Amino acid sequence: MPFPDVKLANRPLHFLYLCDCSGSMAASGKMQALNQAIRQSLPGMAAVARDNPEARVLVRAVRFADHAAWHIESPTPVDQLEWRDLQAGGITAMGEALKLVAAALQTPPMEVRALPPVLVLISDGQPTDDFAAGLEALLRVPWAQKAVRLAIALGHDADLEVLQRFIGTEPATSGRSPRRPLQASNATSLAQYIQWASTAVVGAASMPASRVSETPLEPAAGNIPLPDLPPTVLDPTDDVGPLVW
Amino acid sequence: MSWILPEGASLDFEGLEAPLQIIRGLGGGTQGQVYEVDLEGERLALKWYLPACIARDGGLERRLVASIRATAPNEDFLWPIALLRVSPASRPLIRLRQESFGYLMPLRPPAYVGASEHAAGRLAIGLRQVLRACFGLADAFHALHLAGLCYKDVSLGNLFLEPGGGSILICDNDNVAVDGADHGAVLGTPGFMAPEVLLGQARPGADSDLFSLAVLLFRLLTRHDPLKGQMELAIRCLDEPARRRLCGEDPVFIFDPVDDRNRPDPIEHVAALITWPIYPRPLQALFEQTFCRGMKQPSRRALTGQWKQELARTLDRRALCPACGQENFQASGAPALCWSCASPLPEPITLVLPHGAVLAAPDNELHPHHFDALAGEDLRRPLARVVAHPQDPRRLGLRNLQAAAWSAETPDGRVQPVQPGESCSLAALARIHTPAGPIAVQRPTRPSPAA
Ligand SMILES: Nc1ncnc2c1ncn2[C@@H]1O[C@H](COP(=O)(O)OP(=O)(O)O)[C@@H](O)[C@H]1O
Ligand SMILES: [Mg+2]
C-alpha cells in the first residue's frame, strides 16, 4: 500500500533577476551571452528545486533600459520557465528597476511566510537614473532587507561601487567574495556565476547545506551563509581565445 | 556544470595500475564533483574535491586513508575504496591550477533514488518499505557506532532508497572519524544538527549522530520535520538566525507530551498529524526520548540498538486492513481501527516465536533473531515469509525460505513436511517445527467482525 499521500509543508523562495538591457549590452555579444547563461542554468536550477522539497522556487525577471519593466512578471515555478531572449537598446534605468522590485516584495503581494528571496543584479555600466532613490525604496521593504542580494558586473565598464551598494557592506577580508560584485570578463565566467547563483545559492537559501566550522554561522548578506564561489575551472576552449569584454 | 575532470578521457593516477576512464559527471555539491568512471571494465564512482574544500579541512586526507584502511562497517555504505592523486603525465588534463585529490567508491545502482524524493512525496513507496529503510539506517549507524566511528553529517541528502524493497545506501562518508578523536571541519546540516552542535557548544560525534538519526527517521516516517510546528509558523522569514532559534536555542518537539508550544498546525502541518498516529506507542516513545529529555541531554538519546529493536518489532506488527488494504501496525491484544479508513481491524493470526511474535500478513517475515536471543535484529536473511494464496488472497500461508524441510503439525496431531520453497496453509496448523526453532500458530480468540 502506498505511503499516505500527505502534502509536505513548504515555503516559497522568490528568485529575481534584474537584467541590464542598455544599448552597451549589444556590444561583443554580451546580451546573447546573458540570455544563453540564464537559459543554460535552468535545468540545474530545476534540479536543485526538486532536491529541496521544503522550498517552492519561483522565478521572476526585470529588464531595465530606458525604463524598467517586468520580463517575467508572475512568479513562475522553475520547471515551467521558458526564457524569452532579452533585447538590448537604450539607457540604464537601474533605479527604476529597484523600485519595481521593491513594490513586488511588499506584503501583499508577497506571502506572509517565505524563505529569504534571492535578488541577482546584472549590469555592464552605470545607472542613468536616480539609483540612490531606487535603492532607498528597495531597502525600506523588510523582504528586501532579508534578501540575499548578489551582483554580477559584466566587463570593465560596470559600476562596481553602485553594485556594492546594492549588495550591502563590503566584507573586510580581501579577495573574491560573493559579498562583492562578481566580475565576469567573458561568457564562460558569466555562465559560471549565473549557474552558481541559481543552484548553490538557491540551495543554501531553501534548505541548509552541510556546515563546516571555518565557514562559521556569521551573518552573511540576507542572513544566509553563502556557498563558496565556483572554482576557477580552466576553460578547455581557452586556446580558442574567449571573448573578453 | 563545468567539469573539473574531462569527460571521456583516460587518466593515470598514482598507485593505480590501469588508467581510469572518466565516463561522465554525475553531479556536483558543496565539496566536490562526482563522476562515473571505468577501471578495467568495472564501473565505480569518483569524488573529486574542490581546492577550497581541501584547504578548509586539513584532516580530510588523513580521515580518508583511515576509512579506507578500516573498510566499510556494512554493505550499506558507499565507502571510500582508494585515495587518488593524478600522475604527472595526466596532470595537465585536470582543469584546476591548484593541487587536488579524490577517492573511488562503489557506484550507486540506478534503482536507488535520493531520499528527498520520498520527503517530497514523489516516490511510490509503501509503509513496509519505509520502515525497512528506517531499520536499514539504524542498522548501518549501529555498525558504524560499534566500530567506534561517527558520521557527523546525517541528512536527507546523503541517503538513497530503493523503493521496491526498502534497502538503503549512505553516501558522503568522508566526514567519518573515530568518535571524539578528530576535529574535522564539518558540523552537520542545519535541520539535522543536534542543538549543542548548532550552538557551537559541542563538536559532532556519536551522540549528535543519534539526534540527527532520529530527525532523519522522523522525516522518513512522517514526511515532516520534528521541530516544525506553531513556532515555525510564527517565523516570517526562515533564515539562519530563525533556524538557530527554532533548532538550537529553543527547540521543542511538535509532539512533546508536556510542552505544547510547538504543536503541528492542522492545515500547514497535516502530514505530521496524519502519519504520527500510524506508529505504535513504543516507537513514538523513542522519538519522545530523543527529542524531549534527549534534546538537551545528549547521553539520554535513543541508541541505535533501541531503534533497531523497535523498528523490527513494528514490522512484526504489520497487518492489512480488510476494508481498504492499508498497512496498520497493531498493538497486541487491543482492538483497533484502521488509521486510514477507520474500519475495525480483525484480530489477526499470530506466529508466536521463541523471541517475539509476528502477525500473519502478506510479506511479513521471520528472521533468525526471532529464534535466537543472541542474534541481533537483521532483516537480510529471512527464514520464512507470509504469502497470500494465489487463488484466494484471504488464505494465508507461510513459505519455507530455509534450506531444510519443516514439519507442520495440525491441531489433531497430524504432521506433514514443508520442503524448501513450499508454503503451508496457516489456517490448518497449530505448530511448525523448523531447524531454527518452533513456530506456534495462534488464531484469534474472538471471531473477526468480517467472519
Ligand atoms: N557513489 C555515488 N554513485 C553515484 N552518484 C553519487 C555517488 N556519490 C555521490 N553521488 C552524486 O553526486 C552528487 C554530489 O555528491 P555529494 O558527495 O553529495 O557532493 P557534496 O558532498 O559536495 O554535496 C550528488 O548528486 C550525488 O547524488
Ligand atoms: Mg553531500
How would you explain this protein's 3D organization?
The complex is a heterodimer of chains A (245) and B (451). Chain A has 245 residues and is of the alpha/beta class. Chain A has helices spanning 30-51, 94-104, 131-139, 142-146, 160-167, 187-206, and strands at 11-20, 55-64, 68-77, 118-123, 148-154, 182-184, 211-212. Chain A has a single domain (11-209, 218-240), classed as 3-Layer(aba) Sandwich (Rossmann fold). In chain A, strands 3-2-1-4-5-6 form a six-stranded mixed β-sheet, sandwiched between helices. Chain A starts with 10 loop residues before the first strand and ends in a 33-residue tail after the last strand. Chain B has three domains: 10-106, Phosphorylase Kinase, domain 1 (2-Layer Sandwich), CATH 3.30.200.20; 113-309, Transferase(Phosphotransferase), domain 1 (Orthogonal Bundle); 347-442, Tumour Suppressor Smad4, CATH 2.60.200. The mean pLDDT of chain B is 94. Chain B is globular, with a radius of gyration of 25 Å. A six-stranded antiparallel β-sheet of chain B has the order 1-2-3-4-6-5. Chain B has a six-stranded antiparallel β-sheet with strand order 18-17-26-25-22-23. In chain B, a hairpin with a 5-residue loop joins strand 22 and strand 23. The interface between A and B is large, with 53 and 68 residues. Magnesium ion binds at residues 29, 157-158, 172 of chain B.
Give a short summary of the structure:
The complex is a heterodimer of chains A (245) and B (451). With 245 residues, chain A is an alpha/beta fold.
Task: Give the tags.
heterodimer, A: 245 residues, alpha/beta, Rossmann fold, 6 helices, globular, B: alpha+beta, Transferase(Phosphotransferase), domain 1, Tumour Suppressor Smad4, six-stranded antiparallel β-sheet, 11 helices, binds adenosine-5'-diphosphate, binds magnesium ion
Question: Which two chains form the greatest contact, residue counts included?
Answer: A-B, 53 and 68 residues
Number of helices of chain A: 6
Helical run tally of chain B: 11
Mean pLDDT of chain A, to the nearest integer, reads 90
Shape of chain B: globular
Oligomer: heterodimer
Would you identify the CATH H-level superfamily of chain A? von Willebrand factor, type A domain
Please, how many domains of chain B?
Answer: 3
**Which cofactor or ligand species appear?**
adenosine-5'-diphosphate, magnesium ion
Low-confidence stretches of chain B: none
Overall geometry of chain A comes to globular
Q: What CATH architecture of the largest domain in chain B would you give?
A: Orthogonal Bundle
The main pleated sheet of chain A reads as: 6 strands, mixed
Largest sheet geometry of chain B:
6 strands, antiparallel
Care to count the β-strands of chain B?
26
User: Which superfamily, in CATH terms, is the homologous superfamily of the largest domain in chain B?
Assistant: Transferase(Phosphotransferase) domain 1
Strand content of chain A: 15-25%
Specify the helix fraction band of chain B: 10-25%
Rg for CA atoms of chain B? 25 Å
